[in-house]
Amino acid sequence: MLWRPHILMEVAVAYWEFTGRELVNCTCEYGCPCQFNALPDKGHCYAVAGIQIDQGRHGETSLDGLKIGAIFKWPGAIHEGNGEALAFVDEAADAAQSDALLRIMTGQDTDPFATMFAVYASTVTTMHPPVFTKIDFDVDVEGRTGRLSVPGYVEMHGEPIRNKVSGQESRAQIVLPAGFEYEVADIGSASSRTTGGPMELAIDQKYGQFANLHLSSHGVVRG
To answer: Quick one: what percent of the chain has pLDDT higher than 70?
Structure first.
């Protein structure tokens, strides 16, 4: 199975595009300084991500309905590199679909640094072999709720931020008109635990990013 990180400058051999939804949980507080070109507030960045592809294709290969996920650990700021990553690919994907998803996730068939996949792949030095497995993932971007379960590896849960006095749900958004991942993200609270595998982490009620995605070989599809 193809697994070649860091090949970011090769000529794209297939155009890809998909729409979907994501939930990302990292160790930063709710604002996440990384979204504003600042350093991570814990000095490092550990994160868990899940993506549901609603409609998509890579060349002639349909990606409709497939799911992917990942665990990331950077010892410092992301741009400083030396990252570690483990990717999860939906066991429902056939060989062509799995190959396509891994190409997308490692920044291939993509304009240089045009998506978060390409950017992150360029900062990872330890890329563990991908895991082809059952991925249970459900996310409601508007409601800021979600759950990712990769049995034997990771559990993540997302929920709305709540006012510390009244307990009422509090809603906030981050708008990035020129971002490489999304245009608008709803911010919530999320927690993650790894349950096995080569990467250990625990995140409790930190930054939860809920976003609708529309990405392609050329980056975020806008408008």
So the answer is: 95
